[in-house]
Amino acid sequence: MRRTTTAAIVAALGITLTTVLAAPAGAAVPSSAPTCSGTLTPADLATGCVVDSGRLVLPDGRTFAVPAAGTSVAALPVAVAGVPDDGDVVVTNTGAAGVAVRVDDTWAGSPAAVTRERAAEQRRTLSPEVRGRVGTGAATTAATTTAATTAAATSSCTDGSYSLAGHRWKTTVGWRYNKANEKTLGRRLVTDGANAWTGTITACGKTVTSRAAATYLGASSRQSAVRTDGGCGSPDKTNVVGWSRLPAGVLGVTCVFYGSGGIATETDQRYSTGHEWSTTTVCRAGRFDMRGVATHEWGHAYGLGHTSASSKLVMKPSATTCDTAQRTLGYGDLRGIDALY
Ligand SMILES: [Zn+2]
Fold it and tell me: Which domain of life is it from (predicted)?
């Protein structure tokens, strides 16, 4: 429509067309880009449409408030071991190039946005052993850890693999706890999970100093942005940890909102009320270890993605009952937080 209007003005003013069209070529939004809104699927976004509002529905049922132009949202779950995992989701709104959607390593949405985001992911992935995502780059240090990730029964101290989700923080994460629907007294254990990644950390005989930081700001009645379907709603500038129903087989979900430079602006967590949790030092049999799962969720919040399912690291994609080993960083977890902070 803008092109038609421009042409009409051009005709009226009698200016040469090439002169006038030189300006729109450099504008933020190409005049040819369609817009879309409302309830959208990845197929709708494949038209390359420009979106500034609306709701994205994935084939697996998760829904996302479309992020503002220039921002991304990630939904990072942890599942019950043995249950098929729907995967990590990243939705990036590039503005003029449309919206890219990634579910684990499968991309959908606007082709132009996908091309751009895939290239960005390649650039920021520092770890060559990460789930086979990077085939080139600094491979000289990868030989031993690549072998480690493929071994079925790797110890957490010989497996150096980690994965970067695509964001990091430049500030301390000030977070609040909403105890509505609280299944168990979780706040202190969520704090333990946050602190596992900060300060001077020794694991597997190695010590690093992490600049990642979180601070508990108190109780809140605000809602976590994590949706009961496992997707993410809109950010509200408050980092909230809470409880709700989540899809069957999902123990917890972390949503992270970040800008085009990958700098995080908000993170929210939710833990499932559909499972039994242990809060004791010695885990109560048949329950999921609150502190261990919280440590995993904070790994996501700070910027780590999943390692392979066979790894014994904190950032493996699923947990068994009483997986208390997940409270303690393994070698790959330590390398991952060190790479980010
Ligand atoms: Zn996870």
Answer: Bacteria
**Cβ–Cβ under 8 Å, residues 69 and 95:** yes
Q: Is the dihedral of CA 180, 181, 182, 187 positive or negative?
A: negative
Instruction: Sketch the domain layout of the chain as residue ranges.
Output: 1-32, 39-340
Distance 21 CA to ligand 1 centre (A): 48
Ligand 1 center–CA 51 separation, angstroms: 28
Ligand 1 midpoint to CA 205 (Å): 25
Measure 63 CA to ligand 1 centroid, in angstroms: 18
Q: Would you list the DSSP string of 276-298?
A: -EE-SSSPPTTSEEHHHHHHHHH
CA 292 to ligand 1 centroid distance, Å: 12
pLDDT in tens, 234-250: 999 999 999 999 999 99
User: 39-340 has which fold?
Assistant: Collagenase (Catalytic Domain) (3.40.390)
The percent of residues in the chain predicted with pLDDT above 70, rounded, is: 82
How far, in Å, is the centroid of ligand 1 from the Cα of 288? 14
